[in-house]
Amino acid sequence: MRLSKFRKAIADMGCDAAVLTNIVSQRYISRFNFTDGYVVIGREKAAILADFRYIEAAKAAAGNDFEVILISREQKNVLPDTLSRYGAKKVAYENNYITCSAFDALKTKLADFELIPMGNVLDDLREIKYDEEFEAVTRAQRIAEAAFRHVLDLINPEMTEIELAAELEYYMRRAGSDEPAFPTIAVSGASSSLPHGEPANKKLSRGFITMDYGATVDGYRSDMTRTVVLGRADDDMRRLYRTVLDAQLAALEVICEGKDMAEVDGVARDIIENAGYHGCFGHGLGHGVGMYIHEAPSLNPSAKGKILRRGQLVTVEPGIYIEGKYGCRIEDMVALTDRGPVNLTDCEKQLIEL
User: Mean of the pLDDT values across residues 167-180?
Assistant: First the structure.
């Protein structure tokens, strides 16, 4: 299905073939994960071009849709030769994911072909996900949730932020994660006011601890944030946490296929603003997740007129950040499926004091 939809999109551009050089695009279309080579898609045939390091694995993974071709010192023209054999003249390339120097090399290699920039063709295809993609993200999310419950028993004032981040990542790898979905955020005390703060080699501060992290399964990433309290929360902290949770629950209640993205953002944002935290929610409500940790679509105030569609997967992650003091964020992932919106996150989010 992916391959046929991509072929149609390339044909609609007036191209005879496409050359994929981005490793995420290559894996999305071919299901094979490698870091050096090409995936070539013609009107009727497709190929994985790989060097000796990957050739055996490529043959095992290719299936019937792809031929596997060795790139060697003796076969320097294997890319143009393959395109010629596929009858290609106009070739789409990934202008969004190629450096200037790599494009110059590609242009030299394919001097006999007309290169056409692909733009957002593959990004648009990846935005609408299949059930198997939702399933991979869900498996990654279950690993992340287990890691959260694991560290709740370990968090203490002698642990550093870096140790907490490392413990999350180590648990996820042992539980089956390919890699962290992105650099793990584990920040405490005043540092929790930094939405994308980096874990430091310092002991956990009492107060809010924000953990934003995810696992990866078959190339698909999960994303969750939970904020807990080391020690006891005072009344102001409890009110702030309750406001963030109310905002998230309200957004989760209204999110669905056909809803304006800015309106969903506004539901959460209005609750935070009306509670007196003006200017303390400075980022969008959510973003797409898939093979990249940030994909289309984006739920934010500037997305007015953009409508949520079936097949999209988005985070819902309101937060309140008081500069120099502390912050709190709560994040789930929602899939817009044939059965309606489904929250893929199954993890406690009541205020936890440790």
Answer: 98
CATH entry, 2-124, from 1.10.275.10, 3.90.226.10, 3.40.350.10, 3.30.1460.30 = 3.40.350.10
User: CATH fold of 131-343, please?
Assistant: Creatine Amidinohydrolase (3.90.230)
The span from the CA of 226 to the CA of 228, in Å, is: 7
Domain ranges of the chain: 2-124, 131-343
pLDDT digits (tens, 9 = 90+) for 72-88: 877 779 999 999 999 99
What is the tens place of the pLDDT at every residue in 220-273?
Answer: 999 999 999 999 999 999 999 999 999 999 999 999 999 999 999 999 999 999
pTM: 0.95
User: Peptide bond preceding 297: is omega within 30 degrees of 0, i.e. cis?
Assistant: yes
Q: Which two tokens stand for residue 327?
A: 């912050």
Q: How confident is the model at residue 62 (pLDDT cuts 50, 70, 90)?
A: confident
Other beta carbons within 10 angstroms of residue 234's beta carbon come to 11
- The amino acid sitting at 309 is R
Q: Output the 3-class SS for the chain.
A: CHHHHHHHHHHHCCCCEEEECCHHHHHHHHCCCCCCEEEEEECCCEEEEECHHHHHHHHHHCCCCCEEEECCCCCCCHHHHHHHHCCCCEEEECHHHCCHHHHHHHHHHCCCCEEEECCCHHHHHHHCCCHHHHHHHHHHHHHHHHHHHHHHCCCCCCCEHHHHHHHHHHHHHHCCCCCCCCCCEEEEHHHHHCCCCCCCCCECCCEEEEEEECCEECCEECCEEEEEEECCCCHHHHHHHHHHHHHHHHHHHHCCCCCEHHHHHHHHHHHHHHCCCCCCCCCCCEEECCCCCCEEEEECHHHCCCECCCCCEEEECCEEEECCCEEEECEEEEEEECCEEEECCCCCCCCCEC
